[in-house]
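Re: Re: ligand-bound prediction request (bumping)

Still looking for help on this. To restate: I need the protein modeled with pyridoxal-5'-phosphate bound, output as structure tokens. Inputs repeated here so nobody has to scroll up.
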Amino acid sequence: MSNQNGIPFLDLVTPHAELKNELVEIFKTALDTAGFIGGPMVQNFENDFAKYCDADHCVGVGSGTDALRFALIAAGIGSGDVVVTVPNTFIATTEAISQCGARPVFVDIDEATYNLDPKKLQAYIETACDFDQATKTLIDRKSKSRVAAVIPVHLYGQMADMDPILALAEKYNFIVIEDACQAHGAEYFSKKENRWRKAGSMGKAAAFSFYPGKNLGACGEAGAVTTNDANLAQQMRMLRDHGQAQKYYHDVEGYNGRLDSIQAGILGVKLKHLPDWTAKRQAAAARYRELFAKAGNPVNTPYQPEWTKPVYHLFVVRVANREDFMKQLGAVGVATGIHYPIPLHLQKAYAAMGHKKGDFPITEKVSVEIVSLPMFPQLREDQQAKVVEEVTNILSAVRV
Ligand SMILES: *Cc1c(COP(=O)(O)O)cnc(C)c1O
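Reply:
Sorry for the wait, this slipped through. Here it is.
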């Protein structure tokens, strides 16, 4: 950031400075015991994170991408299967699908929540698939493949509408894997169960990323899977460690995808602060709303239905002339981001899928308007006031 008084998009220095002594202790412990792989730091963090997510099991892995890929493989998904997800997500979601051997199929998002639209999932099932009653298998008509799973992405820290997604999964016999990589601690009110549920506790399994910029971030790469299925957890433990449960006895061919002990120790320290950091993000989101309302709502703030408690990994607004808007904000020292500028179905990497513009109109429409404003727990009130003032100035100048 060139502007001295600028407002960063994200501050990763302050939280680490605050925890420096505790984090250095983790390094010391690892060095003193040469405990770099496995051991109590990994187990303790897995236990703590499972508890935090209201899940029975947590298996630490090398990244969120590993978590998604291993969860799919452990659930028996692979070549010849279709896995449904949204085009408005980070490419890791579809990389995991392709890399387990399956084929991604996209369903468009809901314009209000930016998450998978259950009605469009239902429409895909009813118009593009056949249900084989004998084998209880949903078949994608075009590829003649089994629809094995759906991955709803809890984007920006807000959970997807899980009740109808889970109901479709039950009716048509496929599984749900949550991409909770942006949603540590997010909650969803299940009308069906009449209670709040945590991200990572609702699907067959859920993937979390601890990439440094995530709400719970390591000092390097890390990820985890949560699940209530003991068998799936056991499979995950083998997959991350070359398919072995006992050293050099390989039941299956696996991967090198373990969670480092040092990262696990660091995550354990930070997890204790996560409820406070989440509360601060939620307070900052409420303050943005208040300040934008006072300024006459120059932008639409994120939709927050009463059935979610988002953790505001990102605070996303929408504007016309986005590139110009971001340039002007940058010039006055306000950093912004775009999540994500190119929908997956229009990425070069997926040209072979044969999609064209217009295939997923809601994702395409929002992709050219979305802007992520500064959002992190240490974001101050005066910084937020400046963001809102600058946004308002830029947008009112455009109008006249
Ligand atoms: C960050 C992220 C991932 C991948 O996590 P990594 O730890 O970077 O591999 C997957 N899905 C979503 C939605 C993410 O935001």
